[in-house]
């Protein structure tokens, strides 16, 4: 397997000095690079050894294994939380010291602030001692601000890294578990669910570690603040604290409710991603069946349920945010209302010490503490889901390595022949240990290797797919390539065997995938080779080559178990096993079984025909099965013999990664998706009102304290004057009107609360609706984009948009967006308040603003790239998981779990490199911002002292208390703005998928009549076809006609363009030239009108998760009776009747609880139900046994007698009885005529293909072709004679010999017409 990344740079964090660690100076070189150019993966630093995926995963795994053992001993359920706590508690507990110191500083800072304001209250210009003391308190405020900045970011960096470690370890464990799941366990989970565990659930560990320490710090700080407030304002502080105590359980309730919604949302998200996974995997079939609408309805239904839960949890978040916004205002209001009502007078120092202490406490108690509860609740849900997955059953391996001396003796050549697909694959699965046996013993001695029935390739080069971890031995490798008929393909590929093939090998043909799959098994030096039908996906010529050169050539000295439906190879077998419905009915050599006659004769009917020559297959002929030998083909053909056409392998398109700023267009698209312009204007006004009332409430308190101070001064002067004058009568102190001041104060508080709550709830509603709209647009666009998009984009990449990016839009982005707006307005408020108190403060603020703007731009240049790198390095993790789950049996058979685990760890480490940079660059920026805020606080504090002559205590209190809050808030606001911009990359990625190229419309104004096509005639007129505008032309100048009710076989070597012909007919890409169906030009009608009128039985049968009824009839167009009849026609009625809920039984993911043959029969039942005039069979019987093949052929002949049938086949016996055979070569028509005529041309491709099946098989095929022609001729003569006798009386002239010779229709002489055609001519005459 390819290395995941190039050599990364050494991580400078490992060797940085203490000062560099505190200020994150070691990142400066990276920022310089990021400012000059776009950052690439090479610029990232190597992951620190202690953060490596393997190391972390194995450490946590060992604790989990111990916990499972202990739980088994104690007869209890294992607790994953216990394992996590035991593994990480020591390192995480140390970080609590940081928090404690930080909280002590937070509580001490308001005390310094209070002492500084007291200096202004008792201002005495003469008292120099008080002035120096004030300078000391100002320095205390400044230093505590700086200390908080440094400690806070060091703490956050370390706790986020702790969260990252748990997440990485958990991902390692989930993937390791996925590789070990038993077949029973695989039925209990789905790819979508495992992807969701890796994309959403593990992220909760990143979040929970940030807030966990506040569960104990919050209450501790609350106690300290209450103590200080008691000293400051006495028992009145208890009123405010009562509000706080009421808010805390309220927030806890919110947390629990949030957790409840989260677990429900997760279940719906699982379901949606699983459905999306199936839609993306089976998109070709969905398009051919024109099933986009029912799938859209299915996804929209799940999405509606998901979004209703997301909306509920968003409202909770809105309430949470609004209560946080208003909490301190309500607390301060209640405290001072009680304080003044019990007869106290307020002063600036009391008010602003109280405001500052409550502000500090508010952050911890109403944000961090409830966030901790919320995140713990969410994490516990995720831990439960992960634990459930980790406790699923594992597969037990039981093969014994073979000693070297025994290897030399093991040269048995053993093949298995099976009657049905179920037993054959099940037998190999049981040998592999994939299926547990109910009873009996399986002994496997030696190393096994396995080639699966459905070829599996993983993203990487062709060479890495074949070597599969083994060292390259050039001679052996070349021999394997030659034996597996891959030599020519390698020569034709642009990069040879180093060509990168994409996800699921979407860009290789079916035959190429099968040969790569086989080559992988052959290259391994194993003792026993299990080959599950490797010859079915290739044509006869390649099949014979593989059998002779590979299975009986390279592997001739090895024991082989070959499952095959190709009976011509059985004579070579040393031992044959005959299975029927899971039971062994016979075993022995070929001659022994022939003599025994146990069901073997019916299976080997064809072989008996070869031996005796007495038996010919009879066939129900269509009415116009006899045709002229003149084919209606006008195709250009090269004189030179064409090589098999090379199907170009496109490398995967690199994931797009936009550069530069997120444009205003993206923001507008995002906002207008959830609300119109008028509503957006309303939001702006609401935000301004909320912020204005917020500031005015504090300003009114400051004004009140100033008026109170003036009044106190006046009263003191009055008292002093009266005491001098000795006038006791006038010794009455004046008082402020409590009703007036308290009334205004109450009004502003109520305004703050109402506007705050309205703003949060309405904005959350609009932004979640935006997410819903964009998801729907993206999904609709995905459904309408051409198939090529899915060929060049891996599943993981597309699913990443629907899981991670939509996850951001659903929950993280609305919260971040609303929070940013709220904080941004508060920052503007702080600067405005400070400027109103000390106007000249704007002088130092302006240069600070310029520095900030440069710093932000400097930071974002790098940060945006880091975030985008984080997104693009995440996709391979999902792609690797998805790919591994598809090839699980192969990986385990090759014992490659360890290597795939290493690759997964390498993908994780690459993502960790990006994530580590994301964490550290954020902290680098935040430390510098808070440093600037410390400068602002210092200027404000010392500026107030310098301007002490003109300032009132209330104004100083307001300015300083606001300036202090700026510290955390400013960096948080700017980081949130950057976070919004980073998360807008998710919006950008979603919007990108809402603007994909769209295929032709599903319906157009020109609608065909309901009965169209009534005949089923298909005409290709000079058709050229390419899968993309810049891709190679795979069908060249094709002109052909398929007549009504005609049965046409389509053959050609691998890559000749057989499937491309079907793609052109279904318009999976738009062909050049004209294709007519019953005279109607297909390019003029809608895709659904075209595709719904043609039935297809695909090469890879696809079933979808959902009921059997939905799989047969997604539009609910047919009655139960019709469905049961269709199932009976294909002999599946008994199978479905045995299911628990019959037609309503929900199938496993991709219908995996049905065999390949049964899935193919379901596809046949679909075709029967549709009752279309045109049926296309795309190598439908390649993977099924002869009995199922015969059943399918028989059903097609009987049920589709009146239809035009086009059959692509590798097995020539399935198409030898066709009316005509179309031979394709290198995208051109090589021959097109009746089978018997084609076999007369010994230079023709078809003749050579028949010869390559072997002497006996070739003789049988020729005999069949001859018999078909004889029967057809006989039918034709009978039809003709019947017509002559019927028309003599009506039109004597028409029956004269001269007329007979001259009448022609579409270039076909009338003597070969059927009765029906004669009648048609007669009535038209």
From TrEMBL:
Ranges annotated as spanning the membrane: 12-31, 92-114, 134-157, 178-198, 210-230, 237-258, 321-342, 675-696, 744-768, 812-834, 840-859, 925-948
Catalytic reaction(s) noted: taurochenodeoxycholate(in) + glutathione(in) + ATP + H2O = taurochenodeoxycholate(out) + glutathione(out) + ADP + phosphate + H(+); leukotriene C4(in) + ATP + H2O = leukotriene C4(out) + ADP + phosphate + H(+); 3',5'-cyclic GMP(in) + ATP + H2O = 3',5'-cyclic GMP(out) + ADP + phosphate + H(+); glycochenodeoxycholate(in) + glutathione(in) + ATP + H2O = glycochenodeoxycholate(out) + glutathione(out) + ADP + phosphate + H(+)
UniProt keyword list: ATP-binding, Cell membrane, Chloride, Chloride channel, Endoplasmic reticulum, Endosome, Glycoprotein, Ion channel, Ion transport, Isomerase, Lipid transport, Membrane, Nucleotide-binding, Phosphoprotein, Repeat, Translocase, Transmembrane, Transmembrane helix, Transport
EC number(s) from the headed UniProt entry: 5.6.1.6, 7.6.2.2, 7.6.2.3
Cofactor(s) of this protein: Mg(2+)
Alphabetized PROSITE patterns for the sequence: ABC_TM1F (PS50929), ABC_TRANSPORTER_1 (PS00211), ABC_TRANSPORTER_2 (PS50893)
UniProt domain ABC transporter: residue ranges: 361-606, 1018-1251
GO cellular component, as recorded: apical plasma membrane; basolateral plasma membrane; chloride channel complex; early endosome membrane; endoplasmic reticulum membrane; recycling endosome membrane
A Pfam family annotated for this UniProt entry: ABC_membrane
ABC transmembrane type-1 domain residues: 93-377, 684-982
Record localization: Apical cell membrane; Basolateral cell membrane; Early endosome membrane; Endoplasmic reticulum membrane
Membrane topology value: Multi-pass membrane protein
Swiss-Prot/TrEMBL GO biological process terms: lipid transport
GO molecular function: ABC-type glutathione S-conjugate transporter activity; ABC-type xenobiotic transporter activity; ATP binding; ATP hydrolysis activity; intracellularly ATP-gated chloride channel activity
CDD domains: ABC_6TM_MRP4_D1_like, ABC_6TM_MRP4_D2_like, ABCC_MRP_domain1, ABCC_MRP_domain2
Subunit structure: Interacts (via PDZ-binding motif) with SNX27 (via PDZ domain); this interaction accelerates MRP4 internalization.
Family: Belongs to the ABC transporter superfamily. ABCC family. CFTR transporter (TC 3.A.1.202) subfamily.
Protein name: Cystic fibrosis transmembrane conductance regulator
Organism in which the protein naturally occurs: Pygocentrus nattereri
Gene: ABCC4
């Amino acid at each position: 397997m390819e290395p995941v990344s190039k050599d990364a740079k050494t991580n400078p964090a490992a060797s940085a000095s203490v000062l560099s660690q505190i200020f994150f100076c070691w990142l400066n070189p990276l920022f310089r690079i990021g400012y000059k150019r776009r950052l690439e993966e090479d610029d990232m630093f190597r992951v620190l050894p202690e953060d490596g995926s393997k190391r972390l995963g194995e450490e946590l795994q060992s604790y989990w294994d111990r916990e499972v053992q202990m739980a088994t001993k104690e007869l209890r359920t294992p607790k994953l939380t216990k394992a996590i706590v035991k593994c990480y508690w020591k390192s995480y507990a140390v970080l609590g010291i940081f928090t404690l110191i930080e909280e002590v500083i937070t509580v001490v800072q308001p005390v310094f602030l209070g002492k500084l304001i007291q200096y202004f209250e008792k201002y005495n210009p003469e008292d120099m001692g008080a002035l120096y003391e004030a300078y000391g308190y100002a320095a205390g405020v400044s230093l505590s601000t700086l200390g908080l900045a440094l400690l806070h970011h060091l703490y956050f960096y370390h706790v986020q890294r702790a969260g990252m470690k748990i997440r990485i370890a958990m991902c390692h464990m989930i993937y390791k578990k996925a590789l070990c799941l038993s077949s029973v366990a695989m039925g209990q989970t789905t790819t979508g669910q495992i992807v969701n565990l890796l994309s959403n659930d593990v992220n909760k560990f990143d979040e929970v570690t940030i807030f966990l320490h506040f569960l104990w710090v919050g209450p501790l700080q609350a106690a300290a603040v209450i103590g200080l407030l008691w000293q400051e304002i006495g028992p009145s502080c208890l009123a405010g604290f009562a509000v706080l105590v009421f808010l805390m359980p309220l927030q806890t309730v919110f947390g629990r409710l949030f957790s409840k919604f989260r677990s429900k949302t997760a279940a719906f998200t699982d379901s949606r991603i699983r459905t999306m996974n199936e839609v993306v995997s089976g998109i070709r079939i969905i398009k051919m069946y024109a099933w986009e609408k029912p799938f859209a309805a299915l996804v929209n239904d799940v999405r509606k349920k998901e979004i209703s839960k997301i909306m509920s949890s968003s409202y909770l978040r809105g309430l949470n945010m609004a209560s946080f916004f208003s909490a301190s205002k309500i607390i301060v209001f209640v405290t001072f209302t009680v304080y003044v009502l019990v007869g106290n007078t307020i002063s600036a120092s009391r008010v602003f010490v109280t405001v500052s202490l409550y502000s500090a406490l508010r952050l911890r108690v109403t944000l961090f503490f409830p966030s901790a509860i919320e995140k713990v609740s969410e994490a516990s849900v995720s831990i439960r889901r992960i634990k459930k997955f980790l406790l699923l059953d594992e597969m037990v391996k039981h093969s014994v390595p073979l000693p070297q001396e025994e290897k030399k003796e093991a040269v048995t050549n053993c093949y298995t022949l099976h009657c049905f697909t179920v037993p054959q694959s099940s037998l190999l699965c049981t040998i592999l240990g994939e299926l547990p046996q109910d009873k009996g013993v399986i002994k496997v001695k030696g190393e096994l290797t396995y080639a699966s029935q459905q070829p599996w390739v993983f993203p990487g080069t062709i060479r890495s797919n074949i070597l599969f971890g083994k060292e390259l031995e050039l001679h052996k490798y070349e021999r394997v390539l030659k034996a597996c008929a891959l030599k020519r393909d390698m020569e034709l590929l642009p990069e040879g065997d180093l060509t990168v093939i994409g996800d699921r090998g979407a860009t290789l043909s079916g035959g190429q995938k099968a040969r790569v799959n086989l080559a992988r098994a052959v290259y391994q030096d194993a003792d026993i080779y299990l080959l599950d039908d490797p010859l079915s996906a290739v044509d006869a010529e390649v099949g014979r080559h593989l059998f002779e050169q590979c299975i009986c050539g390279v592997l001739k000295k090895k024991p082989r178990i070959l499952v095959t439906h190709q009976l011509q190879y059985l004579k070579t077998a040393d031992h044959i096993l005959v299975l029927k419905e899971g039971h062994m009915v016979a075993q022995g050599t070929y001659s022994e079984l022939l003599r025994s006659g146990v069901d073997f004769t019916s299976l080997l009917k064809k072989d008996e025909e070869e031996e005796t020559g007495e038996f010919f297959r009879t066939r129900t002929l269509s009415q116009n099965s006899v045709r002229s030998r003149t084919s209606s083909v006008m195709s250009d053909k090269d004189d030179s013999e064409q090589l098999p056409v090379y199907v170009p392998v496109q490398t995967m398109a690199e994931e797009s990664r936009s550069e530069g700023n997120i444009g205003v267009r993206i923001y507008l698209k995002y906002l207008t998706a959830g609300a119109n312009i008028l509503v957006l204007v309303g939001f702006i006004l609401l935000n301004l009102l909320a912020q204005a009332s917020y500031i005015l409430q504090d300003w009114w308190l400051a004004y009140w304290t100033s008026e109170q101070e003036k009044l106190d001064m006046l009263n003191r002067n009055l008292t002093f004057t009266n005491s001098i004058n000795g006038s006791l009568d006038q010794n009455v102190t004046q008082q402020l009107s409590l009703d007036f001041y308290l009334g205004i104060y109450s009004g502003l508080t109520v305004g703050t609360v109402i506007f705050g709550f309205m703003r949060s709830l309405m904005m959350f509603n609009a932004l979640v609706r935006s997410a819903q709209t964009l998801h729907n647009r993206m999904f609709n666009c995905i459904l309408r984009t051409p198939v090529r998009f899915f060929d060049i984009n891996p599943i993981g990449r597309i699913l990443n948009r629907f899981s991670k990016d939509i996850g951001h839009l659903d929950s993280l982005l609305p919260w971040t967006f609303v929070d940013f707006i709220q904080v941004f307005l508060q920052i503007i408020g702080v600067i405005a308040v400070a400027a109103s108190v000390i106007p000249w403060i704007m002088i130092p603020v302006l240069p600070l603003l310029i520095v900030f703007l440069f710093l932000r731009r400097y930071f974002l240049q790098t940060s945006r790239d880091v975030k985008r790198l984080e997104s693009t390095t995440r996709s391979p993790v999902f792609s690797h998981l998805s790919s591994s789950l598809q090839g699980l049996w192969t990986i385990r058979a090759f014992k490659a779990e360890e290597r795939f685990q290493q690759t997964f760890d390498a993908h994780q480490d690459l993502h960790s490199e990006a994530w580590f940079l994301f964490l550290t660059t954020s902290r680098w920026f935040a430390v510098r911002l808070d440093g600037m805020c410390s400068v602002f606080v210092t200027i404000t504090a010392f500026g107030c002292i310098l301007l002490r002559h003109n300032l009132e205590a209330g104004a100083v209190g307001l300015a300083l208390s606001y300036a202090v809050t700026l510290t955390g808030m400013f960096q948080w606001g700017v980081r949130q703005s950057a976070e919004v911009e980073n998360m807008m990359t998710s919006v950008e990625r979603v919007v990108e998928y809402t603007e994909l190229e769209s295929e032709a419309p599903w319906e157009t104004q020109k609608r065909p009549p309901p009965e169209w096509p009534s005949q089923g005639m298909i005409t290709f007129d000079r058709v050229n076809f390419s899968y993309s505008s810049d891709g190679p032309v795979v069908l060249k100048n094709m002109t052909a006609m398929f007549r009504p009710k005609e049965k046409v076989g389509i053959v050609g070597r691998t890559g000749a363009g057989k499937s491309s012909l079907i793609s052109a007919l279904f318009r999976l890409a738009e062909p050049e030239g004209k294709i007519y169906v019953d005279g109607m030009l297909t390019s003029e009608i809608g895709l659904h009108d075209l595709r719904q009128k043609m039935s297809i039985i695909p090469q890879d049968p696809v079933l979808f998760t959902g009921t059997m009824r939905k799989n047969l009839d997604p539009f609910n167009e047919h009655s139960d009776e019709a469905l049961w009849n269709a199932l009976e026609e294909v002999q599946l009625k008994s199978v479905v009747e045995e299911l628990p809920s019959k037609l309503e039984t929900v199938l496993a993911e991709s219908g995996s609880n049905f065999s390949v043959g049964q899935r193919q029969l379901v596809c046949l039942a679909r075709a029967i139900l549709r009752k279309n005039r045109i049926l296309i069979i795309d190598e439908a019987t390649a993977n099924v046994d002869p009995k199922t093949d015969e059943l399918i052929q028989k059903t097609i002949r009987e049920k589709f007698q009146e239809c035009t049938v086009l059959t692509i086949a590798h097995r020539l016996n399935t198409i030898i009885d066709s009316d005509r055979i179309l031979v394709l070569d290198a995208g051109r028509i090589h021959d097109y005529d009746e089978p018997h005529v084609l076999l007369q041309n010994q230079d023709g491709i078809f003749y050579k293909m028949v010869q390559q099946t072997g002497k006996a098989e070739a003789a049988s095929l020729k005999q069949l072709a001859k018999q078909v022609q004889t029967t057809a001729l006989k039918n034709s003569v009978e039809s003709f004679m019947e017509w002559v006798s019927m028309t003599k009386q009506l039109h004597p002239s028409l029956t004269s010999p001269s007329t007979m010779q001259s009448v022609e229709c579409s270039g076909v002489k009338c003597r070969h017409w059927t009765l029906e055609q004669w009648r048609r001519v007669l009535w038209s005459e």
